[in-house]
Write a structure and sequence with these properties.
alpha/beta, 5 helices, globular
């Protein structure tokens, strides 16, 4: 998926500073982004416009991000899903990939890690 193919990037995280960080990085790359602070908000956003890429926190107020991946993949099969979590144990990582995650990042995040992933998409 090339960067110009990214129609929308959705950031799903209950930490507002993470949403703003991702949003700033994405705007710097001229990418459209939106954010949701819960799985319920993410469902609404996805129903309005299917994202090309989702940065998905695993620990949200209304559930686990990994449990949301099947819904995402069923409704938006081409959407890439990157789990972003402070709980980055091997068990969590395996579960995320089993559910259909395309990538898995542990927190704290670095700007370089986010940029590297976006660079991969622009190849």
């Amino acid at each position: 998926m090339a960067a110009q193919d990214l129609q929308k990037v959705l950031i799903v995280d209950d930490e507002l500073d993470i949403c703003f960080l991702f949003g700033r990085i994405l705007r710097g790359r001229n990418l459209k982004s939106g954010y949701a602070r819960s799985l319920a908000e993410a469902r609404v956003s996805i129903n309005e416009e299917a994202p090309s890429l989702v940065f998905l926190d695993n620990s949200l107020p209304d559930g686990l991000g990994v449990d949301f991946i099947p819904f995402l993949k069923m409704n938006c099969p081409a959407t890439r899903v990157i789990i972003v979590t402070a709980n980055d144990s091997m068990t969590d990582k395996k579960m995320a990939f089993r559910q259909g995650a395309d990538e898995f990042f542990g927190k704290p995040l670095s700007l370089e890690l986010i940029r590297r992933e976006l660079d991969k998409l622009s190849v």
